[in-house]
Amino acid sequence: MAIVGLNLNKAKPYLSMISLQFGFAGMYVITMVSLQRGMNHYILAVYRHLVATIVIAPFALVLERKIRPKLTLPIFLRILVLGFLEPVVDQNLYYLGMKNTTATLASATVNVIPAITFVMALIFRLERVNIKKVRSIAKIIGTVIMVPGAVIMTLYKGPAINS
Predict the structure, then answer these.
(1) Cα 146 to Cα 5: distance, rounded to the nearest angstrom
(2) ∠ CA(141), CA(17), CA(15), 5° rounding?
(3) Residues 139-148 pLDDT 10s
(4) Is 131 helix (H, G, I), strand (E, B) or coil?
(5) In this predicted model, what pLDDT tens digit does every residue of 51-103 receive, in sequence order?
(6) Which GO molecular function annotations are given, in alphabetical order (predicted)?
(7) Of 9, 11, 106, 160, which has the highest C-beta tally within 10 A?
(8) Residues 6 or more apart in contact with residue 43 via CB below 8 angstroms
(9) 136 within 8 A of 129, measured Cβ to Cβ
């Protein structure tokens, strides 16, 4: 019995990632159907973040009540900037891309987000790169591979299907 529990603890990160990918796939299908049936991408972004707030806010209020830092002006401004960038810019551009282009392009742009985030973190000095650490080397290699890979993915049309 202890062996099963130990193996389950080791498998939790992998199971979490698999569950997350299924969640993304489900969200992608719902989004594509909604956009194809005429829903405005601005409204879809608002609904998505409204549902996320309703689901996650109670957990944050209860579980992090005593460990939250005080809301100072610099923290509030950071939250404001992040709140504008992620839902407004990121989600609306993603939905607009899904509505007006192919699924391949939307998938490629989503996969480039971690690379862009890493580059922006370097620019704003939120991330430090130490070439002697494997973690830093992996981030650099991932960024170097991801961007050209996404460009190739968007340009590749795939084999022609005779109909």
Answers:
(1) 36
(2) 135
(3) 889 888 877 7
(4) coil
(5) 888 998 898 888 887 887 788 899 888 888 887 777 777 777 777 777 777 66
(6) transmembrane transporter activity
(7) 106
(8) none
(9) yes
Place of tokens 């430090």: 128
Residue range 119-133: mean pLDDT, rounded:
89
HEC profile for 69-112?
A: CCCCHHHHHHHHHHHHHHHHHHHHHHHHHHHHCCHHHHHHHHHH
Place of tokens 């290699």: 141
In the block, residue with structure tokens 């997350």: 20
pLDDT higher than 50, residue 149: yes
Q: Cβ distance 71 to 142 under 8 Å?
A: no
State whether residue 159 is helix, strand or coil.
coil
As given in the structure block, the two tokens for residue 46 are: 């608002």
